Amino acid sequence: MKKEELKSKLHYLQLLSQSFPTVASAATEIINLEAIMNLPKGTEHFLADLHGESEAFLHVLKNASGNIKRKVDELFAGGIRESEKKELCTLIYYPEEKLELVKAAETDIDDWYHITIHQLVKVAREVSSKYTRSKVRKALPRDFAYIIEELLHERTEDNNKAAYVTVIVDTIITTGRADDFICALCHVIQRLSIDRLHLLGDIFDRGPGAHIIMDTLRQYDTWDIQWGNHDILWMGASAGNRACICNVLRLSLRYANLTTLEEGYGINLVPLATFAMETYAADDCEEFMPRLLQGQHLDAKTLQLTARMHKAITILQFKEEARIFKRHPEWHMEDRCMLDHVDYKRGVCTLDGKEYAMKTCDFPTVSSKAPSELTAEEELLMEKLRHSFLVSEKLQKHVRTLLSHGCMYAVYNSNLLYHASIPLNADGTLKEVSLYGGTYKGRELMEKTGQLIRTAFTDDSSTEDRNYARDYFLYLWCGPDSPLFDKSKMATFERYFLADKETWKETKGAYFQLREEPEVCERILDAFSVEGPQRHIINGHVPVHVAKGENPIKAGGRLMVIDGGFSEAYHAETGIAGYTLVYHSRGFQLVQHEPFTSSSDAIRRGTDIKSTTQIVEMSAHRMLVADTDKGRELRSQVSDLKDLLYAYRHGLLNEK
């Protein structure tokens, strides 16, 4: 009977036999895979809404959300002083910088090297214990791979190997390689402390280091991203969507943060500055003064120039948005062509049949007869800005990285990950959303959206498809049924120009009203075929107001919202400086972070991000690789290999 079953898959087994040509090789791989399935589950880290805060992000990456400090505390409990533990942790986080300080102060550096190397090996042995030797070997730097592997698997407690281990360490020091070895070992510890990194969107905007975060991720091994609305905005800008370009520039000017644009991506802002100085020379642009964060300082002349550039690009944004909205009446967003609703002589704006006084009607480039039309100077400026985004090699490279590592949603180990929302009806059912000639909901909507985003960057798509996809970035940014926005409107115009705060209200979609209800979350999980008794939704997007008593764990534990305000702009609002969620072999831990001072402060004074750990959910048994998605994949491979063994042993295939 078995022979008959296998005849239908002989072609596949023949292909498999090319990798495992003998009974011995197939049996060895089965043994290897069965063993891997009995290792503890690797640690997953979840972060959301980084918003360009590169220093805080890099520190959380280096300290593995406090996981390394916990390991050091456990390993050396009662063995060394608290100050020494702190010094060791700082060394692991910032080895190159810390070594310089140590060498300047240490009187017996060789003795320090001896003690420190043995301590680091102990930590490295602990963080690598979850992995196979093969996986650890791949994480080791080429120059020291053999030495580190020997030290990880040999101990001074073994009398037969004590002298062997001691001589290795002695020789590292006497050959002058101690500094390089320590740095290499510290980076191995950092690397092995996180098995997989999940980013739930919004790398860009507000903070100054989005490009630094992207550079870091390009060097990182295993990570994924679920695109956020701010990531989509930058992706749209890189694809040449002029309304997205305006939004990117406006947000950067609003926070007086031009570092990512100018230093990170080489975007030429001189044409915008020149245009703004000429066009708005007589305007104090009071409504457009940038929001300066703590410690930020600009002189009066720079502030005034920034405000004028801010106003210039904002007016251009409203014009460019209106042109796209009018191109796509099926979006039903023509009511957001805000410049069309202004009576420029009377100084009022009409919204929903009601008139509101404008703060200003000083718009030298806006024609009352055709408010959305660009002047010749504005058209030239927009083309220069668009060209600058399109030819930025680094930006295009980073967007390709987002495309290769990202999507609208992902399912990992019974966890559904997405940035913001799944559009819902008022009764909690999945909402049908119109998208490029079809209607989609839930999983289909997210997948179709992801396909459309990629179309904007695909050369083999038709011109019509590419143009629509490029325009659609704007809908994803501010459309009512966008899973990345999901509000009634984006009240940008109202906040700038209308004093009546009633007009500023943005009504959130049904998802945000109903996400506290367990049955709604269960329905979403079912729609995405998420299985398992302990399944969850994990997302970010909306900052959790911890200072007001809001809990990030919702719907009876089914939903975890981990946007705690990484961005400094949110610290006063949320009361904290971000969350990271850690999912290790024993369960979930939510780590709540206080504001990070600086890396230099961490290096010199040994300060770490102060974190509070909340146990969200612990497993009754320690989770193994067999309990994960990877385990399911490995079991399938083992089954195929057993079929291959049967085929060899019963003459269906010949060994090679």
Written description of the protein model:
Strand 5 (348-351) and strand 6 (354-357) form a beta hairpin. The radius of gyration is 28 Å and the shape is globular. Helix 15 packs antiparallel against helix 18 (300-327). It has a 7-stranded mixed sheet. It has a 5-stranded mixed sheet with strand order 8-9-12-14-13. It is α/β, with parallel strands linked by helices and 656 residues long. The chain contains 28 helices and 17 strands.
Radius of gyration: 28 Å
Q: Could you tell me the number of beta strands?
A: 17
- Beta-strand content: 5-15%
N- to C-terminal distance? 25 Å
Structural class, please?
alpha/beta
Catalogue the unreliable spans: none
Q: Within the largest sheet, what's the order of strands?
A: 7-3-2-1-15-16-17
Helix tally? 28
Residues in helices, as a percent range: 40-55%
Mean pLDDT: 88
Primary descriptors:
five-stranded mixed β-sheet; alpha/beta; 28 helices; seven-stranded mixed β-sheet; 656 residues
Short description:
The protein is 49% helix and 10% strand.
